[in-house]
Give the backbone structure.
Amino acid sequence: MQHSPKGPVDAPVEDARLRSTAVSAFPDVLSLGRSLLVSMRPRQWPKNLLVLAAFLFSVNLAWEPSDPSSWLPLLGRASAAFAIFCLISGAAYLINDVHDAEADRLHPRKRLRPIAAGTLDPGLALGAATTFIAIGLAASFLLDARFGLVVVTYMVLMFAYSYVLKGVVILDLLVIAVGFLLRAMAGAFVIDVSISPWLYLVTMLAALFLAIYKRRGEIASLEGAAGDHRAVLEEYPPELLDQMVSVVSSATVMAYSLYVVTAENLPSNHAMVFSVPFVLYGVFRYQYLVHHKGAGDSPEDIFTQDIPLMIDILLWMVTVAVVLFVFRD
């Protein structure tokens, strides 16, 4: 039996069917994009603002506020570095979530992540991560060779963390701290300025402070099932973490104090010491929230939900800006 070719009446029907298929596929694309974005954890991207620290603290050393031509190019390079780190760190989170999918399903909060929840295919996530890494590495070396090497080091470190070092007691904490140190170094390299070693030390110690309390928060939230989620958590009794954070918090405040009075790029009148009380309050407030409010498992929630801490950070930023731009030498 022969079928007659489609006539003019059939064509609109076929066109409508194709449009319907395209429309139904569009939400799937949006859902996929959303799952990828969530897995890249944009809530963590503010950490990458650390690459702008070198630009901020090099005022009057590498650029002059009153001369836009002296700082606009530097700000553009620093902003590009921030974007690259967001892309690279997002790719690292994708790879980490693929590796940790089974363990994340045992965690009350992490089980909702797209890969652990089954809403994002692991193969697709790895493919996207590979693409993002290739783009990020190419862009980083185009920006600056030293910056590119720092990005490569960061990626290697994140791979090692996801697959090996995350399960090694103490080293897992140090790797997180070094990741923040690399961000600070990258920001200095990309605009070609020198930064006081004390600032690097402050960065690493502050990151270590947060990492220790994050481990403590994870253990508290998982109660007796911490070892099932990640075996290394059993190696961290709360009393050990409390002793570690006591040392690190003291060292952080001391390192910051030494930075503000010794760094060559800061005003020689030592006006930056007025920012030290805000650092002290921030450390004490964070400890209070962890020990008395049961926070700590999610540092980003603490920084975005605790009003006193947010005010303290704002006042610190205002003080630093006033000292650097108003009461400078």
